[in-house]
Amino acid sequence: MADEFDVIVIGAGPAGENVIERAVRGGLSAAIVEDRLAGGECAYWACVPSKALLRPVDLAGEVSRVPGLSLGPIDAAAVLARRDETVSHFDDSGQVRWIEGVPAEFFRGRGRIDGPKRVVVSGEDGGERVLTARQAVVLATGSTAVVPPVPGLAEADPWTSHEVTATDAIPERLAVIGGGVVACEMAQAMHGLGARQTTVLVRGGRLLGRMEPFAGDLLAESFAEAGIDVRTHTDVTRVERPEPGGKVTVHLAEGPPLEADELLVATGRRPATRDLGLGTVGLKDGDYVEVDDSMRATGVSEGWLYAVGDVNGRALLTHMGKYQARICGDVIAARARGDELSRMRDLADGYGAPQVVFTDPQICAVGRTEAAARQAGFRVRVVEYDLASVTGAYLMGDGYRGRANAVVDEDRKVLLGVTFAGPGTADLLHSASIAVTAEVPIDRLWHAVPSFPTVSEVWLRLLEAYGL
Ligand SMILES: Cc1cc2nc3c(=O)[nH]c(=O)nc-3n(C[C@H](O)[C@H](O)[C@H](O)COP(=O)(O)OP(=O)(O)OC[C@H]3O[C@@H](n4cnc5c(N)ncnc54)[C@H](O)[C@@H]3O)c2cc1C
Ligand SMILES: NC(=O)c1ccc[n+]([C@@H]2O[C@H](COP(=O)([O-])OP(=O)(O)OC[C@H]3O[C@@H](n4cnc5c(N)ncnc54)[C@H](O)[C@@H]3O)[C@@H](O)[C@H]2O)c1
User: Fold this and answer.
1) 269 CB less than 6 Å from ligand 2?
2) Domain FAD/NAD(P)-binding, which positions (predicted)?
3) 96-113: per-residue pLDDT in tens?
4) This prediction's pTM
5) Comparing 2-39+92-144+271-347 with 154-268, is the CATH topology the same?
6) Beta-strand (E) ranges in 269-335?
7) Residue 27 C-alpha to ligand 2 middle, in angstroms?
8) Ligand that lies nearest to the alpha carbon of residue 53, given by its number in the listed order
């Protein structure tokens, strides 16, 4: 195996893998280093298993709204078995074969930067290998869960996203700290799969605090109906777990302590940049790696270091990491040819990344919320519509509940943001992403006729609510 490559990528998650594919397509040689499983967090402990756990819960919600259909209890063991299939039983051989077929060289081991364009790979056998890059080194090491410094919390060995997505058993009583995406998705999955008592402890005033307020409110209503206890404005002050794996007691700033069989911490992420040798090139270990719109690290003057995916902190989403990776691979190949390829730049992040929260109801958003748009100085008008009044949504089942809004830039008459909250809206989001990112004028959008009777008729209703 050679020790010199045009491009060396550290981290074989979705972002890293897409960099090598594009760089090789651009005529370069590439190597990729991975210390756990090729495919990354996304494939084994995040997107894929979490969605496998949520799918039956989502479907059960759908079935329960259609008279004439009935559903027995969910067989959690069968769901967990299917989850195991979706993560290939933690076997990455298929993924490694894909990498080799790119073709790129795969190195199993921990990568670390050791000065400009040098990467040291420490293997499991304790051996070290030095790789050098002719063109670029790309960091694609992702992120890890944050465990806040609450007394007793770390010692209680709580679940993070890793343990909850890989669990072999559903806890009877689950306490969740956090009100963001992981907390909401996993609270609903565990509850739907059989947890008897699920309590979500939210520090702020509502679930999904970064999204439109109506989205978190609708989700909280759905949680309350399902028997999930959401406690807002709740601070955890101390945690006790005398026996490893035993009962957990969560002390709160107000009210009696909460007892649970398991505790999930879902309070955000930190970049996986510790012990990565960033100090050898003038950056700081532990920080997000700041990049420009071509994914080049701004803090390294010679311009050979790039960072894509969660590690650059731009948008902690798989599809955004892969988008950045396509840009990065193309840019590196172009620069190697002496071309700047200026059309390949991150434009999407500036508009606001699309995101689907796979709960029931689904919460889907792209672009800016009303509050974010106003804060950024736009002159906006917001239109809202009750999704239940759309025939396509009404036909999906009794008691359909949902809401949508669009944030209109009053000066340019284009959309700055769109949010849909309701069952069956996930695949509707891309229409909004196109409208927002392509800055389609709303009087042109009016001519994009939604099919009857689909949920997408909400587009017409929103434009009518605007006055078109
Ligand atoms: C529970 C959960 C559910 C999620 N669901 C979704 C979803 O539905 N949709 C969505 O878009 N996003 C989702 N996300 C976010 C998504 O998982 C991340 O945005 C995505 O995984 C980031 O991809 P990445 O390639 O940057 O990093 P990762 O997927 O984290 O991959 C990084 C890889 O680098 C490796 N690595 C790290 N350091 C080194 C080193 N020094 N040497 C060698 N290898 C190293 C790691 O082992 C890992 O394999 C979810 C996250 C969580 C936690
Ligand atoms: N479907 C999806 O797209 C999906 C699913 C899961 C995760 N993700 C991505 O993964 C990332 C991580 O998700 P997450 O839910 O961990 O983070 P998050 O940033 O979405 O939510 C973190 C939550 O924890 C709370 N919090 C932070 N510090 C706290 C503390 N000390 N005590 C109590 N509460 C605290 C915050 O107020 C917030 O409610 C997100 O950025 C998200 O984009 C995406």
Assistant:
1) yes
2) 5-320
3) 999 999 999 999 999 999
4) 0.97
5) yes
6) 269-271, 305-307
7) 39
8) 1
Cα→Cα distances 110→4, 207, 214, Å: 17, 37, 44
d(CA 77, CA 9): 38
Q: What is the CATH number of domain 154-268?
A: 3.50.50.60
- In one-letter notation, the amino acid at residue 8 is I
> What six digits make up the tokens of 337?
């040819």
- Two structure tokens written together for 168: 């072999």
Preceding omega of 453 cis (within 30 degrees of 0): yes
Closest residue to atom 27 of ligand 2, CA basis: 267
Superfamily of domain 2-39+92-144+271-347: FAD/NAD(P)-binding domain (3.50.50.60)
Among 267, 310, 317, 349, residue to substitute to test ligand 2 (most atoms within 8 Å of Cβ): 267
Which whole number is the average pLDDT over 236-263? 97
308: amino acid identity, one letter = V
Q: Does the domain formed by 361-466 have CATH 1.10.1740.10?
A: no
Q: How far is CA 458 from CA 196, 214, 401, in A?
A: 36, 16, 13
